[in-house]
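Entry 14. Structure prediction run on the chain below.
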Amino acid sequence: MNTKLINTIRLPLAALLAFSLVRCGQNVAAVTPQKDDPIPVRQQPVTIGGHPRILQYSGLIASNSEARLSFKIGGIISRIYVKEGDHVAAGQLLATLDLTEIDAQVQQATQNVDKSQRDEARMTNLYRDTVASLEQLQNAHTQSTVASEALRIAKFNRQYAQIRAVSSGTILQKLMNEGEYATAGTAVLVFNGTGLGDWVVRFGVSDKDWAVLKKGDKATIAMDAYPGESFTGAVSKLAEGSDPNGGTYAVEVTVAPGGHRLAPGLFCTLQLQPPSPYARNFVFVPASALAEGDGNTGFVYTLNDDGRSVKKIPVRIAYLQGDLIAISSGLDNVQQVITEGVGYLTENSVVKLSTDTSIHSK
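Output returned:
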């Protein structure tokens, strides 16, 4: 036999071996049934219940008072008095710009106020002596008012040429260093206020989950930092629009610390229990019973009365709950579904019902 013919024979054998190995990993028959042999199958009863859907998500702990602190005006950063991880008190000075130019602007505005006030006083005297007109007096008053407002602006800018902590908290990040030029509004420090203990978890949910959630829905939170412990929470915010990047809807859950010390960035998993329509009764089948699935639709097989043929039934899937599938329609008056051997079945298959667990891979 030539080499070309040998390779031609080997290819289907290799494909068949790969297929068998894959099916073994999916809890189906370890040995592929022969074409003329009945396919061994097992079935399980369906259950009907009103188990509410449990939504499971994950996210990171954050503070609702997290802020990106910046200067109101641009300038050279003179000093940064804190570093990442520092705990700060309310009102504490965190960073400042070089005030040379800003102080000069304040002084210039002060001199303009003094001059405009003198001009107004002189114009008032001239008006009393009928030397100056009313218009000239009004113009002098306007100039004095404008100069006073310019001084107020200069002093306000000087006040926000410094960054102070708005509350007690922690410095999460230092984004700029001393000597750098900071433009107006550019974040210099990321601050996390922890004085109020307003810890939250933010994550995105699908449109179907968003539609059944509402503010106040209870949540159970587990954190890797505190294994075996459970925290309570509630949905506090629901986005009114989807994220244009990921297409999900933002949800925020407020977490009760329960006396534990929390920090931004702690990983946690959440379980949320939405209200109806998921409180209604559904037919539940094992996930292994689903032969095909596409979105909300799928197929399952049931055993006919003769015990040898099968029926392929289209079903509508409501949601997944662990290793169970909630079926909203399609299984009326169905008592049992085939759960093992499903991968080999077609509508024309001949089967035999077996209770021998050795026919399935472990």
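DSSP finds four helices and 23 strands in the chain.
Filed with the rest of this week's runs.
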